[in-house]
Specification:
The structure holds two protein chains of two kinds. Chain A contains five helices and four strands; from the N terminus they run H-H-H-E-H-E-H-E-E. By secondary structure, chain A is mostly helical. Chain A has a two-stranded parallel ribbon with strand order 1-2. Chain A has a two-stranded antiparallel ribbon with strand order 3-4. Classes of the chains: A mainly alpha, B alpha+beta. At the A-B interface, helix 1 of A face helix 1 and helix 7 of B.
Chain lengths: 134, 286
């Protein structure tokens, strides 16, 4: 799951933020290290692994949160307004990343208020109004 | 477990200032609490020591015969309050008198005017005016008894002092102890509330409550133990200094033990405080 406001642990670095999702599952240290580096490379953040969240741009922080969501190899990724707090360039990069993840076989369910964005994408769209699917 | 310990150490480092404040608050609170407790224990020790000198002197009539004196001695010895009974004959009384008041006084009189006596020492739990009065009452009508002396006013004063000190010790333990618990748990609570967001995120990422709690609990235990150790070390040093400087002032051997007691107390308060605080945060999360 990823959020509009990223929800990263502000007191630990990029690597530790992603590693935390594996630590809670009781995974082994060596496995965690290998897997976190793999996933950070996938989202293009390997070089920023020692940075703190506050030192990153919004787009980079969202990519960290995507890496954290993906590190446990989920079959589906729930994204709650993942582009909401990002500027145009960063939003486009994160969107590309989500599309890439989808192409690799992970279902991505994204919630957004941006009607233009929805229309520009070739994916199945569900419209919700007052809690009801239209 | 190793994860929790690593996280706890990292947590103390991450919060920097707050971790330090938490340790310092624990140290100061326990220092105040321990200091008061130590002072009271020392005073209590002093009074107990003075009380151990409480004796009943039963002066015997010159007319009393050997059987009467033996009978009285046996009667006293079987009493549960009595530790031992010493027979001081006229000659020994004279020697003791001369030791205290100097030779020459007794030379003025032709025969030894000092009476023989039975010196009664009491067991430690029975050195109160009430118990003494009971013993006095039981033997004062005996034929061999001339007079009984035990420094009644003194013993009553000591009784009162013991009572006041006991009440003060209980009050200090309760009031200052409760205040220390309040201050320490609030500081720990404060350091954990500051990381409320982190706790919320940990849960969102899928951590179980016990997984979240473990590092905080250990952090509280380490911080509390550290604070307790600082308080204990300072108390011990002050205690030692006073002991060397004023050797007659501190008598109770348990005072030193009370100083070291601050370490487990810090551990328990730190651990309990952080456990309650994290649980409170977790309970209020959606």
């Amino acid at each position: 799951m990823i959020f509009q406001d990223f929800k990263l642990l502000r007191d630990r670095n990029v690597f530790d933020n992603v590693a935390f999702a594996l630590q809670v599952t009781g995974a082994k240290k060596t496995f965690i290290k290998r897997r976190v580096l793999q996933i950070l490379a996938l989202v293009g953040l390997g070089h920023l692994r020692n940075m703190m969240p506050a030192q990153l741009s919004g787009g980079e922080q969202q990519k960290v949160s995507i890496a954290r969501a993906l590190v446990n190899q989920p079959f589906a990724l729930l994204a709650d307004e993942p582009l909401g707090d990002l500027d145009k360039n960063a939003a486009s990069e994160v969107l590309q990343l989500l599309r890439g993840i989808n192409h690799q076989g992970t279902t991505v369910l994204m919630a957004t208020h941006d009607a233009d964005l929805v229309e520009s994408l070739p994916y199945r769209c569900l419209r919700i109004e007052r809690g009801k699917i239209l | 477990m190793s994860y929790a310990l690593k996280e706890a150490m990292a947590g103390l480092g991450r919060t920097k200032g707050m971790g330090l404040i938490s340790v310092a608050t624990t140290a100061v609170s326990l220092l105040v609490f321990g200091g008061l407790l130590l002072t009271l224990l020392s005073l209590y020790g002093l009074v107990t020591r003075v009380k151990s000198r409480v004796q009943i002197e039963i002066y015997l009539s010159d007319a009393a015969n050997r059987e009467q004196i033996q009978g009285l001695k046996r009667k006293l010895e079987v009493m549960p309050e009595v530790k031992n009974v010493l027979y001081v004959d006229k000659e020994r009384a004279a020697v003791e008198f001369q030791k205290t008041f100097g030779e020459g006084f007794l030379d003025a009189v032709s025969r030894n005017p000092l009476p023989a006596s039975l010196r009664v020492t009491l067991k430690s739990g029975y050195r109160s005016s009430e118990k003494i009065a009971k013993i006095v009452k039981a033997v004062e009508k005996e034929e061999a008894v001339e007079e009984i002396e035990y420094g009644r006013q003194w013993v009553e004063k000591l009784d009162r002092l013991t009572y006041i000190l006991s009440v003060a010790a209980i009050l200090v333990t309760l009031v200052v102890g409760a205040a220390s618990i309040f201050v320490i748990s609030n500081t720990v609570n404060f350091t954990i509330l500051a990381r409320r967001d982190s706790i919320e995120i940990m849960r969102l990422v899928g951590a179980t409550d016990s997984f979240i709690q473990a590092p905080f609990l250990l952090e509280g235990i380490i911080g509390g133990t550290l604070g307790g150790a600082i308080a204990a070390a300072l108390l011990y040093l002050v205690h030692r200094w006073i002991r060397l400087r004023f050797p007659s002032l501190i008598f109770a051997p348990q005072t030193e033990l009370a100083a070291w007691l601050m370490i487990p107390l810090g551990t328990i308060l730190g651990g309990l405080g952080s456990r309650l605080a994290v649980r409170r945060v977790l309970k209020h999360l959606p």
